[in-house]
Amino acid sequence: FPAAMGAQAAFPGRLVLCIAGDGSIQMNMQEMATAVVHKLPVKIIILNNRFHGMVRQWQDLFYEGRYASSDLETTPDFVKLAEAYGAVGLRASKPSEIDAVLKEAIAVNKPVIVDVPTYRYENVYPMIPAGGCNHEMILEDPPALRNKQSGAGQVTPKDSDTILTA
């Protein structure tokens, strides 16, 4: 988010998008005040899975799913949080809403947060394991992890409200 603000300040006439997870955006959320004060119309799309997603992915792949401080369980209402800062808050709650919500965000000449609820166990690939080399790159979930995350015993009630999944 701060890097996107810097890009927006350097190129005020350009569209700047910041795509981040809910965990990472909360690490610098206070900078929304700076974006509002300096009228930086950066657009922040939050992929909201209620986890520190990359940490959770490592914990699933290398530590048998022993989650330590990665499950956020609850996150703030990012729409209300944006509004509290004087920015615009939007949410895409269904796939059919994404295009319209993004167009609305782009049309606004203010900082905007777009909250996009996502499946909690979505992983990001490719990735290289710690201490690994490029030829050891992991390209997809291993079969054991795919079976674990198929939903049996893993889905929370909030997952029924998500719109993005593999």
Task: Indicate the topology.
Blueprint: H1 2-10, E1 17-21, H2 22-26, H3 32-37, E2 43-48, H4 53-62, H5 78-85, E3 88-91, H6 98-107, E4 112-117, H7 143-148
Parallel strand pairs: 1-2, 2-4, 3-4
Task: Write a brief caption for the model.
The chain is of the alpha/beta class and 166 residues long. It has helices spanning 2-10, 22-26, 32-37, 53-62, 78-85, 98-107, 143-148; strands spanning 17-21, 43-48, 88-91, 112-117.
Task: Explain what this protein looks like in three dimensions.
- With 166 residues, the chain is of the alpha/beta class.
- Helix content is 33%, strand content 13%.
- A four-stranded parallel beta sheet has the order 1-2-4-3.
- β3, α6 and β4 (112-117) form a beta-alpha-beta unit.
- It is elongated and about 45 Å long.
Please give a handful of descriptors for the protein shown.
single chain, 166 residues, alpha/beta, Rossmann fold, four-stranded parallel beta sheet, 7 helices, 4 strands, 33% helix
